[in-house]
Amino acid sequence: MSNTDFSNLKLHADLLKNLSTLGYESMTPIQEQSLPSILAGKDVIAQGKTGSGKTAAFGLGLLQRLEVKRFRVQSLVLCPTRELADQVAKEIRRLARSIHNIKVLTLCGGVPFGPQIGSLEHGAHIIVGTPGRVEEHLRKGTLKLDELNMLVLDEADRMLEMGFQTALDAIVDETPKKRQTLLFSATFPPKIESIAKRIMVKPMMVQVTATHDDSTIGQHFFKVADYEQRLEALRLLLLQHRPESSVVFCNTKREAQAVADELHRVGFSVLALHGDLEQRERDQALVQFASKSVSILVATDVAARGLDIDALDAVVNYHIANDPDVHIHRIGRTGRAGSKGVAFSLFSDKEHYKVEMLGHFIDRTIVGETLPPQSVLGNEPMAPEMATLQIDGGKKQKLRPGDILGALTGKQGIEGKQVGKIQIFDNWAYVAVSQKAVKAALKKLGEGKMKGRSFRVRRVNA
Ligand code: AMP
Asked: In what residue span(s) does the Helicase ATP-binding domain sit (predicted)?
């Protein structure tokens, strides 16, 4: 039995058995390092990114502690976004499926408040939510945390970046002092340290070393000569490996735009994502990429923070990042626990010092590999599977995903499986449909009514 075996942990038998039915054969590094302390009831700070298996690390911890018979809120998980909260709740439900009657409730902003009150009245063991909405429920007295024994802050750095500091403090104030607190974060800016000091007791630090990233993410480095060759190298790698969704990271806004323009010129489905674009253009780029209507995003690090994608097929570093931490953060967006992602990094002679620093950081000697042969330049660029349609109506017009789905799939409509992600903004909404169904979808939405009126619909051009 190796020490990555879940059966080394003193988990309840039914939790353990379920793990093997989920196909979790061995612990991921973050689980291996954090679970013993979590199960021992200690406060833990862990460096965990999406894909590391962090949800199962805290999920198992809170399920192990849970007393099903005591129908009170015993655990609270706070996440920066609704998408993440939904993912976390889903994973906890999967982990809990061998235990009867566990109630997991999500409380997120951006959805009506009323129904949440109803759900809370029915009771829950575990709440997963975003700070703003959870705080609102506490303020209104619709949520009580007197019997909480486990508090989890997931992606704590992003919650602070998004301005949730006050909400977090207010929530912590409403929880019992005697509780276990877990904090997960991809980065550790001083603000995280200070919040950890305030709300945690003798926390254990778990840092999955950078070398680990190599074992789940295939990292490949390529040496290139000059501007022309860098761009060609990028094309060769994309055309050879054909990732369905990939992000190309650039160090400057100008470069991001230039590379996106150039890829577009040679036929790729690509958009730029950087701070010089208008907010609406950025939203559209993110929406299109998330719904697989665009295959490639060429982004700067700052702009890519808005990217809510759990796993990319590939990440390309057009230049090596100036800071090894940034490099690790970038490549951490590819590959999930259990499946391999790839990261390609291009560097020139001039960047040698950065390569050395990175090599030192990830504890390996970086050598350039051979690029794919020129002949792949003849391959057709990858075509996205979906297209995005924009509807001129959103939350303010009371449009909900169900209205759009209903209008698309109703009589003589398209099939449900041809409909992808639906995202609703204040005054407009986006729906992804399969490329093959675009015409039919435009017709159906254009001619039909939602909420008793018709809306203008158009295809968003990538
Ligand atoms: P997370 O980092 O929590 O978003 O998890 C990433 C993915 O890895 C999720 O789809 C989990 O279901 C999966 N996962 C978590 N732990 C394991 C494990 N020990 N073995 C295999 N897959 C896992």
From this structure: 35-206
pTM for the predicted model, two decimal places:
0.55
Whether the per-residue pLDDT at 203 is higher than 50: the answer is: yes
Q: Confirm if 314 and 262 have CB atoms less than 8 A apart.
A: no
Closest residue by CA, ligand 1 atom 15: 53
Ligand 1 pocket: which of 11, 20, 24 to mutate (most atoms within 8 A of CB): 24
The H or E element spanning position 185 is strand 180-185
Q: Which residues line ligand 1 (CB under 6 A)?
A: 24, 27-28, 31, 50-56, 91, 336-338
Q: Would the pLDDT of 210 be above 50?
A: no
Q: Tell me how far CA of residue 115 lies from CA of 120, 121, 137, in angstroms.
A: 9, 10, 12
In a domain, 212, yes or no: no
| Domain count across the chain | 3
Containing structural domain, residue 251: 217-378
In a domain, 1, yes or no: no
- My answer on whether 396 and 364 are in the same domain is no
Counting from 1 in the atom list of ligand 1, the atom nearest the Cα of 49 is 2
Looking up tokens 């109630």 gives: 103
Residues 390 and 365 in one domain: no
**Residue 4 pLDDT:** 86
CA–centroid distance, residue 229 to ligand 1 (Å): 38
pLDDT digits (tens, 9 = 90+) for 21-78: 998 989 998 999 999 999 999 999 998 777 789 999 999 999 999 999 999 999 999 9
Is the same domain home to 233 and 305? yes
Backbone angles phi, psi at 396, to 5 degrees: -60, -25
Read off the pLDDT of each residue in 423-443 and give the average, rounded to a whole number: 93
Do 322 and 428 lie in one domain? The reply is: no
Asked whether the beta carbons of 184 and 31 are under 8 A apart, the reply is: no
Closest CA to ligand 1's atom 21: 24
Residue 359 sits in the same domain as residue 419: no
Q: Does residue 178 belong to any structural domain of this protein?
A: yes
Tens of pLDDT, residue by residue over 118-146, are 999 999 999 999 999 999 999 999 999 99
Task: Indicate whether 264 and 362 sit together in one domain.
Answer: yes
Quote the CA–CA distance of 134 and 154 in Å, as a whole number.
14
